[in-house]
Amino acid sequence: MFFDRPQHGERAVLVHLELSDEAEQEDCQEFEELAKSAGADSVGLVTVKLSHPNPKYYIGTGKIDEIKSFVQSSEANLVLVNHVLSPSQERNIESEVQCRVLDRTGLILDIFAQRARSFEGKLQVELAQLEYMSTRLVRGWTHLERQKGGIGLRGPGETQLETDRRLLAVRLKTISKKLDRVRKQRDQGRRARKKAELSTLALVGYTNAGKSTLFNALTRAHVYVKDQLFATLDPTLRRLDIAELGPVVLADTVGFIRHLPHKLVEAFRTTLQETSEASLLLHLVDASDDNRDANIEQVDAVLNEIHAEQVPSLMVFNKIDQLVDFSPRIDRDAEGLPWRVWVSAQTGEGLPLLEQAIRERLAQEMVCGEITLSSTMGKLRSDLYKQGVVRKESVTELGEYVLEFKMPKRDYERLRGRGIGQPTDKPANVLAGTGTGL
After folding, report:
1. CA 40 to CA 17: how far, in whole Å?
2. Residue 237: phi, psi to the nearest 5?
3. Angstrom distance (rounded) from CA 61 to CA 80
4. Gap between the Cα atoms of 346 and 42, Å rounded
5. 5 confidence band (pLDDT: 50, 70, 90)
6. Residue 138 confidence (pLDDT)
7. Residue 419 CB neighbour total at 10 angstroms
8. Measuring CA to CA, how many Å separate 201 from each of 328, 367, 408?
9. Which residue in 91, 98, 146, 378 has its CB near the most CB atoms, within 10 A?
10. From CA 34, how far away is CA 164, in angstroms rounded?
11. How far lies 269's CA from each of 238, 250, 263, 310, 435, in Å?
């Protein structure tokens, strides 16, 4: 039902809103790219300046008449609005313009539906779509808002709308259970990588920043690459060998965008967990984009929403081949650590510098040491084993456990409250703590 699409492009009128509140403002060029990525054939753009939204249509009645005339003259069958509309506002506009209306959230969900390839990706998209559609079902069943009748069907019963809502709730529950199983499988994979002492790098960034191109350049993979928004939807993991450090896991993730629908963030939480539990984030930025600073802020906002703001990150400014007279380089902070690298994933310029920066940052972010636990601290010992950070264990004559560990620095900091000193190059003799879990 939710993945059926016409085989040809739909003729669409684009409606862009210019709002007085800059925080709510969307980018018009990005909107046109979204429509193009969805496969719509744009027949025109209507710009609406708004200081106060109309509660019935969100846009003014005068502009409604203009859009209606535009739809009729261009024979459009779809109106795309570059803002989030309530279900009633969508229905009200549809009744006036006499064609289907889709807001920004619905447009992004449609693109995700087209891009989903894996079983997990399709489940995540369907979950987001069903939650979005649950408030819009009345639009499809207005003519059936009555109880069933006929021989054997008389008396109190469900309306067609109630039946549809019940079936929708059942499907939502089924998908959630399947995604829970997928989440457990991913957790097993992460624990296995920790036991193998493999660090994870996660590529994050604004959509169309070149993440998949960089992923292919570093790993020699063949991930789908195209100059369009949300070309990559399903996460991909590949092994990457870093000199002096050995193998690490590189994860290519879905791109972010301004005002990414919250339903998508919730639905893709299992996928985005690869980001929140990574050893290092490679935050990819399109260096040639005039809006790159705003895009960085939007990515940071999503990282905060998925609780990945504390994960160490390395800024990677990509597409320097589109800049004039610009050479690859590493920018370092006051402590001499790399915090930004300028590269071109398309031409390969600067990739050796990127690997050098990754090597330096990962070496900085990992801590090796020893912790001595009493026999009564089984919970803490169990937690360390579950995290896969224990490399070796021995038992003293007093029955104490001596665990040799290797873990990310942020996890090490969590243990410092239990009597651990500052990290050193040599294994630290960690004192026994309170016995509570991590």
Report:
1. 19
2. -115, 135
3. 17
4. 30
5. very low
6. 56
7. 12
8. 21, 17, 12
9. 91
10. 30
11. 20, 18, 10, 17, 31
Q: What is the C-alpha to C-alpha distance for residues 142 and 148, in angstroms, rounded to an integer?
A: 14
Rounded to an integer, what distance in angstroms lies between the CA atom of residue 256 and that of residue 252? 12
CA atoms within 13 A on the CB side of 109: 27
CA distance 53 to 137: 24
On the question of pLDDT at 420 being above 70, the answer is: no
Q: Higher pLDDT residue, 208 or 288?
A: 288
pLDDT at residue 354 greater than cutoff 90: yes
- 287-316 pLDDT, tens digit each: 998 889 988 988 898 888 888 888 889 999
Query: For position 192, what pLDDT does the model report?
Result: 66
Q: How long a stretch of residues is the chain?
A: 438
How far apart CA 225 and CA 115 sit, in angstroms, is 12
Give yes or no for a contact between 284 and 233, defined as CB atoms under 8 angstroms apart.
Answer: no
Residues facing residue 14 across a β-bridge: 45, 80
Strand ranges, E, within 165-245: 200-205, 236-242
Strands, E assignment, 290-365: 313-318, 329-332, 338-342
Q: Which two tokens stand for residue 60?
A: 């003014």
Per-residue model confidence (pLDDT) at position 137: 66
Q: Are 129 and 2 in contact (CB under 8 A)?
A: yes
Residue 26 region by backbone torsions, left for phi larger than 0, else alpha for psi between -120 and 50, else beta = beta
Determine phi and psi for 106, rounding to 5 degrees: -60, -35
Non-local (6+) Cβ contacts of 424 within 8 A are 369
Alpha helices in 255-340 (DSSP H): 262-267, 269-276, 292-305
Cβ neighbours for 237, distance < 8 A, ≥ 6 positions apart:
249, 250, 251, 252, 274
Residue 433 neighbours by CB distance under 10 Å: 18
Which has more pLDDT, 66 or 408?
66
For residue 359, the model assigns a pLDDT of 87
Share of the chain above pLDDT 70, in %: 76
Q: What is the distance between the alpha carbons of residues 200 and 2, in angstroms, rounded to a whole number? A: 34
